Amino acid sequence: MKLLNKSWFVRARLKSRHIPVLVALGETGNLNRAAAGLGISQPAMSKLLKELEDGLEVLLFERHARGVVPTVYGEAMIRHARRMLTSLDDAFDEVSALRDGQVGRVRIGTILTPCADLLPELTSRIKQSRPALELSIHTGSSRDLLSALHDGELDFLLARLFAEGDQQGLSFEALYQEPLCVCARPGLINHVLSTQELHAADWVLPPPGSVLRHEFDGVFLSAGMPPPSKVVNVENLLLVTTLLEKNPMLTVLPREVVNHYARYGMLAVIELEEGIEESLNRNLMGYGIITQNEELLSPAAKNVLALLREIA
Length: 312
Known about the structure:
Elements: H1 8-11, H2 18-28, H3 31-38, H4 42-56, E1 61-64, E2 67-70, H5 72-100, E3 104-110, H6 118-129, E4 133-139, H7 142-150, E5 156-159, E6 170-176, E7 180-184, H8 195-200, E8 203-205, H9 211-222, E9 231-233, H10 237-246, E10 251-254, H11 255-262, E11 268-269, H12 276-281, E12 287-292, H13 299-311
Helix pairs in contact: 2-3, 2-5, 3-4, 6-13
């Protein structure tokens, strides 16, 4: 640790109350007016000034009939005292902002669907009301996000909570269902597809083990068919949309996500024979807010969580 001139302020008996005395005298040049501004008596002001000068062993102010004038030593101390007061004010403002959740960092984990509408709205509200707050949004599968939440890498999630051992120590607030649909690039398919045609198609899908893939495979298993075999397994949405753009392939995505890309002419919903889409969504779990030890969240995270609940 760096020694500060052998702790000169300790030897000089410098106290926090000496700092505003220096600033007040520098601004008024008068003991009485400076004392009145600080809410103390003139004798108390004189005593504090004498303590400073005795401790520093220099004359800080020259006394005159009409007031006091800072010496070169006094001017130096006044300048630094002003900086110290400004720094202390800044420190108080920063602590207050941290306490009130106006600044800090909030880390949200989310599955795909909230990225289409809920999180953009949340981000917009945060930028309006808390512009100094740093927001980090991590996307992934619910299982990966739950693992990150357990490890303390995320503050809370927008994801699904599974029926296995994932619930331990977690709280789940259901928000929405996430209806799925089959889609492709616009103009690729212009007729209603049957289960047999879907089975024969080329697909880009999330990898086995994901919730979406489980529901997709279930459509064919319930029809007495094995899942399609012509599949490229991809997790990254940018790669999914690029593959669909350049290849005659199908995929399954949340309808809100498809609606977003459809507005830009990038994806189109494929019509399916009656019952197929219902089968795809029959057992799909809804997503919601998942928290762990909410009372231990930072003020910033609590504020963002409250805003998210208000929007949702």
